[in-house]
Amino acid sequence: MDRRGFIKGSGVAAAAVVGGGACASVTGNAEKLAYLGGTPVISKDESNAIAERIFEWPIVNDAMRKASDNILSRGKMSGTDVTKEFERKFAAWNGTKYALACLNGTTALNTAFYAIGIKPGDEVICPSITMWASCMGVVNLGGTVVFCDIKEDDLTIDPKSFEEHVTPRTKAVVVVHYMGSPCDMDAVMAIAKKHNLKVVEDVSHAQGGLYKGRKLGTIGDIGAMSLMSGKSFAIGEAGMFVTDSLEYYEKAIRWGMYARIPGTFGVERTVRTLDVPFGGIKNRLNQCTAAVGIEQLKKYDAECAVIETAMRYWWDGLKDIDFLKIIYPKWENSNKAGWYSSRGLFLTERVPGVDNRVFAKAVSAELGKGYYSAGCNFPLHYSSVFNDEDIFGNGLPPSKRYLPAGVTSAKTTGRLPVAEGINARLIGDPWFKRFDKAVVDRFLEAIHKVARNIDQLRGVEPPKGSGYSYWPATKRA
After folding, report:
1. What is the pLDDT of residues 68-99, one digit of tens each?
2. DSSP 317
3. Residues 12 and 450: beta-carbon distance below 8 Å
């Protein structure tokens, strides 16, 4: 039986699947939810078997194993020949002139901020909802992070809020293609051009994603991304820096690419500095990971196509649940690439009294495993690291040391209403890596059971420490 047949065959009217009504009372035959002691749709044993077949990631093949073994057998883990090959092939695939493999996404982003010339006192605008790695490199260079708000419909930077946070000290903006969703890059680039700002794209959640037919990471000045094992493009602990600018590429080499400096610049340009990186770090990617990356490039687009099919089928099956809404790019020739850590909107106004954390727990209970989650990253402007901590022990927090008297990053950021409330309005998708229609239909059966009986969850308190419970919702005045 397909998902539509299941809903029809259950004898539950369409109104029972949407929020705002007494769903269980429509038939007078409420099904006790597994979260509250009922029988789950999928048993734990069945769920474990499904996990091995459908959710395993990355998909490792023999070519990846052989490529890594070849590096090990040659003892070339710390060489550069295979890494350079990976960079050339990645640049060609991504559509940029240059690519530089880094230790991880954090160092790739830090390198990007150095390459565009961030210095003490400079401000860089960043959306508050993202991982700290998107902007912490600014702090390390003596700059100040000013946070702006996001848009609820796609969780990415709000162009209006971005422009409102521009000051005479602003030098750049970092945009995050968050949870796979492309930013509105036309609007971002127009504002950046107007104010003469550099644009760094954080593509850690959306490698290979498209915005109006253009690869993400090719539109701003620099793209930087993580390629760690949990991401869509998963090869291990790795990162990638991409750009069309020779100047930025050479600065990135200078910053942390020990053993590649003389070969890049020549003896005459390096005779004074020798082979000492300006950043005092060694940012070289190990070649076992680079070899795996070469093989991953060969199959990544095909894997993303399978994920796209599975995830769109999943969301097609949720259309009759009116308190859930897909987050997907509205522009033609745009996508979510590998759907990394995808989120959907949980419209709280349509299910008053139901906490999204409780809903996530209830669906996971029906699935026999914690496939469902609630919320996202906490708002970074709540963290004292960016406003108050004397990180380097020189008497003042980095954000205050180089700013004019009376100016603080907290005041410049101000309140960000969407970022401050978004965690209560998000549900995490189960991330299907393979498309098995029967399995997805079983998952749809489980979530529809919860939706039909949503009244059982009204007023239920989320478990302590669950989801986003550990940080205060109103920390800053």
Report:
1. 999 999 999 999 999 999 999 999 999 999 99
2. T
3. no
Question: For residue 136, which amino acid is it?
Answer: M
d(CA 164, CA 406): 19
* HSE-up of residue 148 (Cα within 13 Å, Cβ side): 25
**Residue 26 region by backbone torsions, left for phi larger than 0, else alpha for psi between -120 and 50, else beta:** alpha
What is the DSSP code (8-state) at residue 428?
A: E
What does the CA dihedral 33, 36, 37, 42 come to, rounded to 10 degrees?
Answer: 40
For 90, 165, 178, 252, 451, the CA distances from 154, given in Å and listed in that order, are: 27, 20, 8, 31, 24
pLDDT digit string (tens) for 160-214?
999 999 999 999 999 999 999 999 999 999 999 999 999 999 999 999 999 999 9
User: What secondary structure does DSSP assign to 66-133, as a single string?
Assistant: HHHHHHHHHT-TT-SHHHHHHHHHHHHHHT-SEEEEESSHHHHHHHHHHHTT--TT-EEEEESBS-GG
Parse the chain into domains and list their residue ranges.
62-295
**Nearest to residue 373, comparing CAs of 387, 359, 386?**
359
Q: How many residues does the chain have?
A: 477
What tokens does 78 get?
A: 């710390």
62-295, CATH topology level: Aspartate Aminotransferase; domain 2 (3.40.640)
Question: Element (H or E) spanning 324, and its range?
Answer: strand 324-325
Per-residue CA distances from 396 to 147, 404, 409 (Å): 20, 13, 13
Query: Helix axis angle, 287-316 relative to 62-74, nearest 10°?
Result: 160
